[in-house]
Amino acid sequence: MLAGLLPAWAAVSLVWAAPDSLYYEARPAMGTTVEVYLYAAGAGRAEALFEAAFDEVERIEAAFSTYRPTSELSRINTYADATPVTTDPEVFALIDHALAYSRSTDGAFDITVGRLMKAWGFFRGQGRYPSREELLEARKKTGWAYVTLDSTARTVRFGKMGLQLDVGAIGKGYAIDQVARLLRAQGVEAALIGTGQSSYYAVGAPPGEAGWPVRVPAPFDHAQTLSTVYLRDAALSTSGNYEKFFELEGKQYCHIMDPRTGRPVEGMVQVTVIAPNAADSDALATSVFVLGIDAGATLLDEQAGTAALLVTGPKAQARVVSLGWPEEIAEGIQ
Ligand code: ADP
Ligand code: MG
User: Fold this and answer.
1) Tens digits of per-residue pLDDT, 238-279?
2) The model's pTM
3) Residue 123: which CATH number?
4) Residue to substitute in 286, 288, 299 for testing ligand 1 pocket (most ligand atoms within 8 angstroms of CB)
5) Is 172 part of a structural domain of the chain?
6) Is 76 in the pocket of ligand 1 (CB under 6 A)?
């Protein structure tokens, strides 16, 4: 009866192809592990998609890594205090985007923290307390306002000798977004791309599901879950004081700097942000980590589609704060 009501081509489309299956691959990149989950029609197709995805991560890492002397960002860091450096549209756009965050956060987010990261021993190291001189020197060579972009000539120029750009707080998110864009362009309808539990972007959702389940770990015991988010065409990033830190005389110093003091942020344990894309969730998580609850809330109010879950310390007085968090939050965090 149905066939009688439908044109001939419809009958053909009623013969369903086998449903896509879930495939997963993880590879080390960007100083962490990049994970890709995707639904594809077969193993061969999935393999081709993984190759394209990880090639894209490598392309972005080759451009932005400050651990690679050959990267475009390293080239800018080497020459931009002597002369305006012409760069490619992609690198220019990400620096421009990062500087916009510096403006909107009043300098809490600042990609010129490169010197501070080195002074505090977080570049190729696990951290250490700097001498007074080192710190003074590093602070002198920090400040987003010293970076001048010329969008017509597409140049980057430092107004201060020794400035060093470091996109560690936005680059991984950006890479995830680009992988998502690539997979979408290849016709992928459901994928989850993640970097070592710090950022995720979800393309669509697994068949029949509301979204990709992404866990926000409890800050003091990562095996436990503080909240589970069902992400769909959205991103989530977590910045934690436990990612990289060192301890001195019972005090903990983390790898997120407050550029306004030149010191690691104190009092914040973990910030998770949901945003429409991963470059923004990544940058916002770091920004809110530095800004704290009130200024962080004001910042998120200005950006559509965002929400955050904060944990402040110390551990004995840990507090969980929701800024429009859409999901259930576990009681009694550890
Ligand atoms: P993770 O890399 O662990 O996911 P974040 O996204 O918060 O954590 O990024 C931390 C990195 O960002 C640091 O390693 C450093 O490179 C850089 N960074 C530190 N403090 C700041 C800041 N205030 N603004 C911008 N970038 C920062
Ligand atoms: Mg970040």
Assistant:
1) 999 988 999 998 889 999 999 999 999 999 999 999 999 999
2) 0.94
3) 1.10.3980.10
4) 286
5) no
6) no
